[in-house]
Amino acid sequence: MLQDASPEARVPDAAELRRMRWRARRGLLENDLILGRFFERHAQSLSARDWHALQSLLELDDNTLLELVLGQAALPPDPCNADRIRVLRLLRTA
């Protein structure tokens, strides 16, 4: 399953992708729009590391996620941030 994904893990299959899209539905319309476009444009080209980073970003509350995507907040120091930053850049271009 994707929940236990390590950076070397595989990308999700079609069923896991559908679950991830459903989980990405947010309370803020802005996040819904951004994440919807993100999935349309990038879902098929993401690496396993990207999927893992996206999953960790989706664990954030709506306002924090939106602030990160808009560049109004910074990620706290963490060795895994390189992957999260790459996904945030993709979210910003979605």
UniProtKB/TrEMBL annotation:
<dbReference type="Pfam" id="PF03937">
    <property type="entry name" value="Sdh5"/>
</dbReference>
<dbReference type="GO" id="GO:0006105">
    <property type="term" value="P:succinate metabolic process"/>
</dbReference>
<keyword id="KW-0143">Chaperone</keyword>
<dbReference type="InterPro" id="IPR050531">
    <property type="entry name" value="SdhE_FAD_assembly_factor"/>
</dbReference>
<dbReference type="InterPro" id="IPR005631">
    <property type="entry name" value="SDH"/>
</dbReference>
<keyword id="KW-0963">Cytoplasm</keyword>
<dbReference type="GO" id="GO:0005737">
    <property type="term" value="C:cytoplasm"/>
</dbReference>
<protein>
    <recommendedName>
        <fullName>FAD assembly factor SdhE</fullName>
    </recommendedName>
</protein>
<dbReference type="InterPro" id="IPR036714">
    <property type="entry name" value="SDH_sf"/>
</dbReference>
<comment type="similarity">
    <text>Belongs to the SdhE FAD assembly factor family.</text>
</comment>
